[in-house]
Design a protein that fits this description.
Elements: E1 7-12, H1 22-36, E2 39-46, E3 64-68, E4 72-77, H2 87-107, E5 113-117, H3 121-133, E6 137-142, H4 148-152, H5 160-174, E7 178-181, H6 184-193, E8 199-201, E9 221-228, H7 235-241, E10 248-255, H8 259-263, E11 270-272, H9 278-285, E12 290-294, H10 306-313, E13 317-320, H11 323-331, E14 335-337, H12 343-352, H13 355-358, H14 363-373, H15 376-387
Parallel strand pairs: 1-2, 1-5, 2-4, 5-6, 6-7, 7-8, 9-10, 9-12, 10-11, 12-13, 13-14
Antiparallel strand pairs: 3-4
Helix pairs in contact: 2-3, 3-5, 10-14
């Protein structure tokens, strides 16, 4: 899968390791894969600060940082970081990176092809605008449908400001050479705005070696959640509303705004384990029986990357969100679904969960289907054909 000649590409993203989460993992996987296939990759991103809202140790006090990797260079730009709930402060933080991005394009030699992570919308817009000014081939990666997602989460409302965001969205979709969408719903939404635009489905499929999953050693069924502990995930609500038992326990890994509240809950058979590194987590998850993927709001276009990550490890999933994600889980035999915030249905699922029910989705079968049907290398080869054309 090697390419004959070197090509240069710039990845513009608001999130990148050592930050954690779906977006940093996705962009790092893409950067690494491009580097392994003959591309000279440059990544431009803010100094790491997500999700804490503070510049990470080792980067503090810097206006600019650069580092060489096996796939190319990472250029980290100044940003005024914040995870404040105040919209004005958060906007200022986004604009600060947009400001740095402007000077980066002005002062650096920019490759002929620019790959832009669309979200957050203002940073995506800035990068698209600069790419157009500098006459670059632009690839827009859309993983969230802003501003629609903000409206569905209750962050945004109809009005003049929302109309301005819709205009920005339309501009970004119109001024590129290719749009990559993380879900079929995203591509369907974009097709209504820009029906003639070239589009490509590029799911957030992870790329890591897999081992055969371990077989169950005890009678207790252990459900696990691992990830961000915020309002959107609803793990605190689950802890408050669901009763677990000697037969079914709930284990939580991660950090976030609700971590302290979750840790303080004193209920039987709920266990908080804190945050661990991703590689370590993959080893730990082998010990569990079901991975929980919850959201408090059905967000059109959203397909959590955890579906592909957990099933690749061999874990069947319990999905709570509906939409395209639920369709993927059920159609591929990856596990179960429960209606959004239906605590009665969730409690019934837990109460009726038996080893017999668990055997409907054997770990080895789940892993086999995930590896065969959602293969990063196969998807990436198709993307290369388009980027190289």
């Amino acid at each position: 899968m090697k390419m004959a000649s070197k090509k240069s590409i710039l990845l513009v993203t608001n999130y990148f390791p050592p930050e954690k989460g779906a977006a940093p993992n996705r962009m790092h996987t893409l950067a690494s894969a491009l580097g392994q296939n003959g591309f000279n990759v440059s990544v431009v991103c803010p100094l790491p600060n997500y999700p804490t809202g503070r510049i990470f140790k080792g980067f503090r006090g810097k206006l600019y940082s650069t580092e060489k990797t096996e796939y190319g260079e990472i250029h980290r730009l100044w940003v005024w970081p914040s995870n404040s709930a105040n919209k004005i402060i958060r906007l200022f933080s986004m604009f600060s990176f947009s400001f740095s991005l402007f000077f980066y394009f002005l002062l650096k030699k920019i490759p002929a092809t620019v790959f832009i992570q669309y979200s957050p919308i203002f940073i995506g817009y800035t990068a698209v605008k600069l790419s157009k000014i500098f006459k670059k081939k632009t690839i827009l990666n859309v993983s969230d449908l802003w501003p629609l997602a903000g409206k569905e989460m209750g962050i945004l409302k109809d009005g003049r400001n929302y109309s301005k965001l819709l205009a920005i969205e339309k501009y970004c979709y119109a001024n590129n050479d290719l749009i990559i969408g993380q879900s079929e719903e995203i591509l369907e939404h974009i097709s209504k705005i820009q029906p003639e635009k070239k589009r490509f489905l590029y799911r957030n499929i992870p790329s890591f070696p897999v081992n055969s999953p371990t077989q169950k050693q005890n009678k207790e069924i252990r459900i696990v959640y691992a990830g961000l502990l915020g309002v959107a995930q609803g793990v605190l609500e689950i802890c408050e509303n669901i009763q677990f038992s000697d037969q079914v326990s709930f284990h939580i890994y991660g950090s976030g705004p609700e971590a302290n509240a979750i840790q303080s809950i004193k209920k039987s058979h709920i266990y908080f384990h804190g945050e661990v590194e991703r590689a370590v987590l993959h080893e730990i998850l082998n010990e569990y029986d079901i991975a929980l993927i919850p959201l408090t709001t059905r967000i059109y276009g959203s397909v959590p990357s955890k579906i592909f990550e957990y099933t690749r490890l061999g874990l069947p999933v319990l999905y709570i969100s509906g939409g395209e994600g639920e369709k993927i889980v059920l159609e591929n035999g990856f596990g179960w679904s429960v209606p959004l915030k239906d605590w009665t249905a969730f409690q019934e699922f837990v109460d009726k969960l038996t080893l017999g029910e668990l055997e409907k989705y054997p770990k080895s079968s789940v892993q086999k289907r995930a590896v065969e049907r959602f293969d990063f290398e196969a998807q990436f080869r198709e993307l290369l054909k388009i980027i190289g054309s």
